[in-house]
């Protein structure tokens, strides 16, 4: 098992949680330490895709660690150097916008800020219905910013949702491996 410590932060985009949990299941087979983090929205919102309690239980069951879901819980990530890499999956348009603007008002954005203070890699697994419209500038901002790495992504339904972008969550592990080497997994854009 690999010794690098992985933070795995889950945001909204509730329809992608099943795929994200499958990707997390693969990561915990490879990495000894995976620390689950949840946005407040994910931690406390029940949706037609499942209850918040079920999501928190699955995150803890898969990782063997307690979910961090508020700012005081994630703030020590930086000063204590708790992670080697942080994955944000799914990274919603809202979260990407906040990261691009330097806003740290959620557990996930604070985890990123805390981790970035040490120059660690942040892996973004995008899921945004406005990625090719209002969110495009924020994605572009993070694509050129140091220490951000994107899981390859593309349009998930170009006809019915022409502005929607989603990562290939099955490539999270490969992207983490590349990010730990300081490399962006290619190609970033999927067809």
Please provide a brief summary of the model.
With 191 residues, this protein is α/β, with parallel strands linked by helices. 37% of the residues lie in helices and 21% in strands.
Main attributes of the structure:
single chain; 191 residues; alpha/beta; Rossmann fold; 7-stranded mixed β-sheet
Written account of the structure:
The structure is a single chain. The protein has 191 residues and is α/β, with parallel strands linked by helices. The protein has one domain: 3-Layer(aba) Sandwich (Rossmann fold). It has 8 helices and 7 strands, in the order βαβαααβααβαβββα. The chain has helices spanning 17-30, 40-44, 52-63, 71-74, 93-101, 107-116, 136-143, 172-180; strands at 2-10, 31-38, 85-91, 122-128, 148-150, 153-155, 165-167. Strands 1, 2, 3, 4, 5, 6 and 7 form a 7-stranded mixed β-sheet that branches. Helix 1 packs parallel to helix 3 (52-63) and helix 5 (93-101) crosses helix 7. It is globular, with a radius of gyration of 15 Å. It starts with a strand and ends in an 11-residue tail after the last helix.
Helix and strand pattern: EHEHHHEHHEHEEEH
CATH architecture annotation: 3-Layer(aba) Sandwich
CATH level 3 topology: Rossmann fold
Strand content: 15-25%
Q: Identify the CATH class.
A: Alpha Beta
Number of strands: 7
Based on secondary structure, the structural category is alpha/beta
Main β-sheet description: 7 strands, mixed
User: What is the general shape?
Assistant: globular
In helices, the fraction of residues equals 25-40%
Radius of gyration: 15 Å
How many domains, in number, for the residues? 1
Whole-number mean pLDDT: 96
Identify the CATH homologous superfamily: Flavin prenyltransferase-like
Q: Report how far apart the termini are.
A: 33 Å
């Amino acid at each position: 098992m690999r010794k690098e410590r992985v933070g795995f932060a889950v945001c909204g985009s509730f329809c992608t949680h099943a795929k994200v949990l499958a990707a997390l299941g693969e990561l915990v087979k490879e990495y000894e330490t995976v620390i689950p983090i949840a946005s407040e929205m994910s931690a406390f919102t029940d949706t037609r895709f499942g209850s918040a309690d079920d999501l928190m239980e699955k995150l803890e069951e898969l990782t063997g660690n307690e979910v961090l879901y508020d700012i005081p819980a994630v703030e020590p990530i930086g000063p204590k150097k708790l992670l080697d890499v942080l994955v944000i999956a799914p990274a919603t348009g809202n979260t990407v916008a906040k990261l691009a603007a330097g806003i740290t008002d959620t557990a996930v954005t604070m985890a990123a800020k805390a981790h970035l203070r040490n120059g660690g890699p942040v892996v973004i697994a995008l899921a945004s219905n406005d990625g090719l419209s209002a969110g495009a500038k924020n994605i572009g901002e993070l694509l050129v910013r140091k220490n951000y790495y994107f899981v390859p992504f593309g349009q998930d339904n170009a006809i019915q949702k022409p502005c929607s972008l989603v990562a290939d969550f099955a490539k999270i592990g490969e992207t983490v491996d590349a990010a730990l080497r300081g490399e962006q997994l290619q190609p970033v854009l999927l067809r």
